[in-house]
Amino acid sequence: MTGLGKNVRNIDKAVRDAVADTNAGTEADAGPRCVGEGLDARLVVDRGRFRLDVSLTAAPGDVVALLGPNGAGKTTALRALAGLVPLTGGHLRLDGAELDRTPPESRPVGVVFQDYLLFPHLTALDNVAFGPRCHGTGKAEARARAAEWLRRMDLAEHADAKPRRLSGGQAQRVALARALATHPRLLLLDEPLAALDARTRLDVRAQLRRHLADFEAVAVLVTHDPLDAMVLADRLVVIEDGHVVQEGTPAYIARHPRTDYIAHLVGLNLYKGEAEGHTVRLDSGPEITTTEDLTGSVFVTFPPAAVTLYRDRPTGASARNLWPCEVAGLETHGDQIRVALTGEFPLTADLTTVAAAELGLHTGASIWAAVKATQTHAYPA
Amino acid sequence: MTPLDKPAAAADTLTGGPRRPRRRTALAGRRSPVPVPLLLPALVGLAFLLVPLIALLVRTPWHSLPDQLTSPEVWQALRLSLLCATAATAVSLVIGVPLAWLLARVEFPGRGLVRALVTLPLVLPPVVGGVALLMALGRNGVVGQWLDAWFGITLPFTTAGVVVAEAFVAMPFLVISVEGTLRAADPRYEEAATTLGASRFTAFRRVTLPLIAPGVAAGAVLAWARALGEFGATITFAGNFPGRTQTMPLSVYLALQSDPEAAIALSLVLLTVSIAVLAGLRDRWMTAS
Fold this sequence. Notes:
heterodimer, A: alpha+beta, Rossmann fold, CATH 2.40.50.100, 2 domains, five-stranded antiparallel sheet, 11 helices, elongated, disordered N terminus, B: mainly alpha
């Protein structure tokens, strides 16, 4: 998808500029937010060639997911929030208190690490009691509190187990209990479900969602899995190459992707072009007819399932969005076949195995692709 | 692995590469015999190392051994040796573990040089170490003169001097061992501890130290064994006074001239200790090969 990739880079830049503008706006009138509750941060971390510059705001009770491809800087952002990586610029305020220069042990922040990092020499109970002990609570009191946390996580019977005896899901809950036992005002979760197998993942995701819903302060989680992000978070912040490319509710982002990465995650074909009424002229030349009536720079999306393929040019009347294509690749996608097509612009199409067989699809085959205008969705860029 | 890769992997096993097969397979038996130019020196080398130890056992006066080992002189030397080696190990632990932590966890300019200097006593002739200690801590030494003038402390030719000499020679073993373990340990556990409110010292004490305990124990045993056998630095810095600074190795050396049987008996005790140390550390070293 080289054509789209090129477009997307331009889009990225546009979005980045737009986001930067928005940030400048919020910083200018950030007065009430400084003293307010919740998280207000601009995290700038310079690491040689890589630069992270991400702004995050969240109110108590919010669950924010940082979503992005590997190497986008999600984990660096999380470590900067925890104080494990020093900021080279920006600011970090939590409930009105400046935390930029506060060492990690003095921040009211709890972290659930990707592989949990439960202390292997301590029992589950002592792992959870570790935080309260460090905050000056007496041994008996700390253990009592830890026992209460484990009970809340349905782990009472595993209190005396060492971490290596716990299953992945149990270890995850102990790690969560350990992070919550210090009553953090900011809870950070790094790929909280990545270390689990698919079956456990489903249960743990549901439990985690419940615990996060009960959590009264700000929670920030990092994930590269869009499903985790959409199930667990109220708001998504999509990071690519150290910058925020889009943020919003999961539903909004799924419907209005602005970059190739997000479009791919939510399974949509995404194009950018100039709209004139119902016609969108793509930067690469071809036109797409939409139902929306827009003017100016827009994005157009349509799902792969909306694409119909024909071996010969169809003679029907409704084929306004009809393009000659060439099959670039085929792969199974669930119980469907996903076809990658090239031509005037790259697109993907989903069709049933039977349909694929009837069309005699193979790499290099010439084909016609059609999309109904009603199945496209256009929105201003 | 695709079916195509399998024959290649099998060929690797046959030729012994690219990875050495961990376990001897039936195929290994078909290899040509070990070449004589290698086998002969190897056997000589093995004999060279083992024959002296066997000779020691052969010539041990087994009938008089109980008397030898219970004689007051032997007891005195043995007790002093155990005491001083243990004290030297304790000193090494108190100052060596933090030094190892510093070398493993804190970036500072010249760290490589410092690490090299720490390991210097490993290769330094112990006698030179003894002389150096005299220059530093002797009554007129660079530091020793102040110890004497301000606190009235003199270390040379005292039992404390034995501990100092043994610690000087033995501590690098502990530092190297602990530093290696620290480098292998995941520093993110310390990070996890700090996010829970632990200071760096608390994180070290409650998380890192328990995690590296096996490495510390191995290093301590190694240092203890080295301290127990220490001769050159001890005799140079602390002298050879029975009951005060005359440890087992010193008394073995002296006894050899007057009472060889006693020397053999004492040597047997040290050999037993060495074998015990080796047995105790076998999981750490023997399985590595």
